[in-house]
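hey can u run this one w/ pyridoxal-5'-phosphate bound, need the structure tokens asap thx
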Amino acid sequence: MAAIYLDNNATTRTDPRVVTAMLPFFTEAYGNAASTSHSFGWTAEEAVEQARQETALLIGADSREVVFTSGATEACNMAIKGVAALYRDKPSHIITQVTEHPAVLETCAVLEQNGVRVTYLPVDQYGQVSPADIESAMGPETILVSIMAANNEIGTLNDLTAIGAICADRNILFHTDATQAVGKIPIDAEKLGIGLLSLSAHKFHGPKGVGALYVRRRNPRVRLITQMDGGGQERGRRSGTLNVPGIVGLGEAARICREELSSEHEMLAALRDRLISGILAEVEGAALVGHPLQRLPNNASIYLPGVDSDALLAALPDVAISSGSACSSAAVKPSHVLTALSGPADLARSTVRAGVSRFTTEAQIDTVVQRIASETARLRRLTPEILVPPGVFQNA
Ligand SMILES: *Cc1c(COP(=O)(O)O)cnc(C)c1O
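ok here u go:
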């Protein structure tokens, strides 16, 4: 059997149209976008500005609000450290949630060592943070709220409208790590009252190693201390020769998502639901993890009681899905997201994540359902002492 890729929350296949758009910028059009004295530079600069426009359009921004980075990790660092540095001499406080990506959590942990106070809010059983909790955590020293749009492990969406409104009301800057949401659900940074937004091309069929930080320009203008000093590219916000082919790829990926988002959303959700209902029908006690409705169209996180997810993955080498230790698979420890959900004790050990994409087929879904069902049954026979409590995780 040809390998089936369902790990689209980890990364996605670069769309062939994106590759085609990028290629000339490796070969003939290899100029430095900062070279202003010749046509090689102008061509590169023009392509970068077009990509900036496309990136802005996808998130409801103005192109001058887009700063290109090496990805979402850099964008989150630039945003959070850039804001904290502004308040370096004053007591300051940041509000975030326990289920953020390490790009946010580890950045906050570093700031804590430098004296910044950080509140890590809990989430409910679906993985959603309560906007009311955010509001109660706010105080006179709060400089930033950093809450992700969609969770990379369980697909749960946060209520950005409510959170943005609270932040605007209290005049507190709102950063959202929207890496999983951009290109999958409509996001309008301007309307949502977002001050800073991080995104990454490789999560929506663009190339790896390129992303962007949206920095609001007005109502109110967001100020940041530069984290990367040098030649002054990106209006001095992020120095370094621009990754022109990568940026062109980001722009093309953004254009495709913007034009196809509404039709693609339904197609992805249908595949996702086929996968979820297939597994829930075939595997006794299986349950959906995360919010049943407020979730990414492409993510299915499924609890398989009595099954060690890493053993299941090992038994399915030709199916690319991931386990509860997904985002920290270098260090094997249970997922901080799954452990935050107050579910059954073995939730983190027995949950698998599958993500569909525009390249996934129904036939692939059906194959994966059958493979997961048969391997789950085999693993349960091997360890019959693990009781399967049916429907133990009814809340999902
Ligand atoms: C993938 C991901 C990141 C990191 O993005 P990179 O571009 O790979 O650095 C950050 N946050 C979330 C939610 C992600 O899914």
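Residues 280 and 324 are 18 Å apart (CA to CA). anyway lmk if its weird
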